[in-house]
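HOLO CASE FILE
Compound: S-adenosylmethionine
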Amino acid sequence: MRRRAKTRNPLKTTTTPAKQQRRTNQRGIRKQASRTNGKDQCLPSFTYTSSPCSTEWIRTDARRTAIGLDLDLESLEWCLENNLSKIGADGYSRMLLFHGNVLQPMESRLVKQKFTNLVHGLDLNSNNGTGSNSCKQMGLADSKCLANLTMSEADFPARDIICAFNYSCCCLHSRKDLVLYFRHVRSVLSERGGIFVMDVYGGISSERKLRLQRKFPSFTYFWEQDEFDIISRQTRISLHFQGGKKQMMRYAFTYHWRLWSIPEIKDCLEEAGFKWVHVWMREMPNTQSGGNAKEYNANRDVKYEESQHFNQGDAWNAYVVGVANV
Ligand SMILES: C[S@@+](CC[C@H](N)C(=O)[O-])C[C@H]1O[C@@H](n2cnc3c(N)ncnc32)[C@H](O)[C@@H]1O
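Model generated. Tokens follow.
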């Protein structure tokens, strides 16, 4: 994936002996996790930079915590800087972002919350104690303790919801990997009704070359779809943005995706141990239409419905929900 956003220079990390660091880390994590007594947890695996889902999750209830995991460090840092900063210090202490691969989640590493420094003018890393005091005042002591933590060193309680949105599962191209990812998800979900939610799209328009645009008052968004290979079911999606009259940000994001069918996803979830799989679907605006926001909004009220059957059409979107247990 290519992104244009710039990152700033990383700040120094703290230097406590590894063993002591790990113990402190685990205490810190448990303290954060215990705020919810293991309830209302959200681990938006595959969470990404903008991840509005997890930010909104913690913003709307002070007891909630969230954990994100993504392969793209730049995206995670962008999230910390741009989304979490809006929630403030409390948000930082309730969301942990890990950098790594969902296929080896335990090896992923906590992204250092360096942006707290920038946002609050604090020096979390200073060895003269000032930073540490400031952290405590702000309730941020944990963020210092957690630097360099790997997921395997953390002792998280079972999660209630795990989300993989914006078609993230399409980044996995083999069935073996999809099942492996689902197994990891299943293994950390709460036995008391923990759910996994992912989205997927399809329709006749998704299996051919396509260029869509959506106009908003201040910018236009372009979805560019390459030819669709029916043997591998893969395509390349590029997203471009135009702000104002001239500023064009081409290839802001590029993804190489395999379009999974709903029965394939369902089979893989069941193979990974999910007890129940539900599918919620809706038709999307026709891709032949002009693509202005007015036309799009006219279609906004079409609701998702739980479906057993759905006739093929130009474009549809689905949420597939796996229930760990009941
Ligand atoms: C289409 S984006 C969606 C991002 C995010 N879920 C959201 O809602 O904004 C897909 C994301 O999946 C990440 N990704 C792809 N393969 C991955 C893997 N094996 N492990 C972890 N993250 C991965 C990419 O870095 C990218 O940020």
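CASE NOTES: The longest strand covers residues 247-258. Residues 1, 46-48, 50-51, 69-72, 75, 101-103, 165-168, 171, 255 surround S-adenosylmethionine (CB under 6 Å).
CLOSED: yes
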